[in-house]
DNA sequence: CTCCATCAGGATGTGCACATTTCTTGACGT
DNA sequence: ACGTCAAGAAATGTGCACATCCTGATGGAG
């Protein structure tokens, strides 16, 4: 299985894809913003087809909304849609913590503890950017510990769509989850084997996030594309590495 | 919001997409088959870019596997991947039937009963094709009754990937679920409000499907594309109608 | 003054042609 | 005889140019 990268390679695709996602993640692109292909191609310094492909992919993944012959837009999640996503997450994550509570390796417990410790450290440093990342990764970690790749992929998609609201609507409040101590409690219940308690804590945790998000309606403001993508394109693509091609 | 269809329109895209999916659904395309773009374009009578777009979409949805600079292939699901998919389904669907058991409208109960009745009718007629469809739709129906669109979308994707194995590996056995009576029992438990029983029945049901599929390893045989797509392209696109564009 | 029709400008969608890569076939050397 | 390498052919990936459609503005009619 040769994997020779070419000159421009698919890395260019990933770069464009990652640049747009990062801009959204950083709250540069307000809901309702139209992402027009020529402007993006000019700003990012790539061909229009590259931008096209990336936009189509983002649309398919639910990050952007496309209207035929009109263009692609940054979606404004309604409260109802958000509630639905968290509802599905509740179903999945309650089952996940239940399963982990009923049986997990010592290595798993170690990773959980380490993650919670890292979150606490970030909290002490008041490093809200890092804490934002860690808070999301906690939920992915739980899925990973189940050893089911399909589950991990699915939950990751759900989670990114969940955190999109924070990124887009309330970029100021970089408090992804209501605080690391809730994660700590959940981890403790899992390690202690208390399935019911872990599930209940997770449900309360997610419910809290919903009310937290519902309290911060998205702020509509126009955005200049050139400004939004300033010092973005060069950085390495981090979040795309979980999205590899499936090889039979 | 105007919706003027053009001459060829997006319907052509959907037609190509649907044709390939239908061919897979009918077991015409064996696992490992390479879908090369020029041949498909010639067979379906459309331009190569149309085929390209459809293939990319199918790859992204998990129906096909793409290898850069090599082409797109019909995947051969391993037993492990299949088990993972059913594992996720177990988590979600157990939660679904629990929720429905704890509260549902009379209209919901009516739809459930009607569906089970239709399955029994198809069984009596020995209409295995129709039963195959209905068996899948039963699980989607449960998700729909929860009133959560996100959940419905997600489960539909999982389900199509589950049934892919039947379509590809064992097209002969058109018994999607082990029999409508299991669906009937689940529906009965839901309507009766027995959450634990409904959840347990669902878990047993899904576990049974896994063992059923694991017993039928995929049969590898080369396929002629022109033969696989005979009397396919003209038919109306049925399964694509649930995949509309998201409009903000 | 308001409303509608018409038209220019720009953006999206599509087909085409070329560059690049990979697979196959055949010959050559060991 | 087998393995290796090279050259041709075919398929994939990409950029370009044109067709089609939407949007906003301008001018005329009521």
How would you describe this structure to a colleague?
2 copies of one chain form a homodimer. With 248 residues, chain A is mainly α. Chain A is built from 10 helices and 3 strands; from the N terminus they run αβααββααααααα. Chain A has 2 domains: 89 residues, Winged helix-like DNA-binding domain superfamily/Winged helix DNA-binding domain (Arc Repressor Mutant, subunit A, Orthogonal Bundle); 136 residues, Four Helix Bundle (Hemerythrin (Met), subunit A) (Up-down Bundle), CATH 1.20.120.530. A 3-stranded antiparallel β-sheet of chain A has the order 1-3-2. The radius of gyration of chain A is 19 Å and the shape is elongated. At the A-B interface, helix 3, strand 2, helix 4 and helix 7 of A face helix 3, strand 2, helix 4 and helix 7 of B. The first copy, chain A, binds a DNA duplex (30 and 30 nucleotides) through helix 3.
């Amino acid at each position: 299985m040769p994997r020779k990268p070419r000159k421009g390679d698919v890395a260019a695709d990933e770069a464009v894809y990652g640049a747009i996602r990062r801009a959204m993640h950083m709250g540069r692109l307000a809901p309702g913003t139209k992402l027009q292909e020529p402007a993006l191609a000019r700003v990012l310094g790539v061909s229009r087809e590259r931008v096209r492909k990336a936009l189509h992919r983002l649309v398919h993944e639910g990050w952007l909304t496309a209207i035929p012959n009109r263009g692609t837009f940054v979606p404004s999640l309604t409260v109802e849609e958000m509630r639905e996503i968290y509802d599905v997450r509740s179903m999945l994550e309650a089952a996940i913590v239940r399963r982990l509570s009923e049986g997990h390796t010592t290595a798993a417990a170690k990773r959980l503890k380490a993650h919670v410790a890292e979150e606490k450290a970030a909290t002490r440093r008041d490093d809200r950017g890092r804490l934002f990342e860690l808070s999301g990764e906690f939920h992915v970690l739980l899925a990973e510990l189940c050893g089911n790749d399909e589950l991990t992929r699915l939950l990751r998609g759900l989670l990114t769509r969940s955190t999109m609201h924070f990124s887009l609507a309330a970029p100021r409040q970089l408090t992804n989850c209501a605080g690391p101590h809730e994660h700590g409690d959940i981890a403790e219940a899992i390690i202690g084997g208390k399935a019911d308690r872990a599930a209940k804590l997770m449900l309360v945790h997610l419910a809290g996030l919903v009310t937290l998000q519902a309290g911060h309606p998205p702020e509509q403001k126009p955005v200049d594309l050139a400004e939004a993508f300033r010092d973005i394109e060069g950085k390495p693509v981090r979040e795309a590495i979980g999205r590899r091609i499936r090889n039979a």
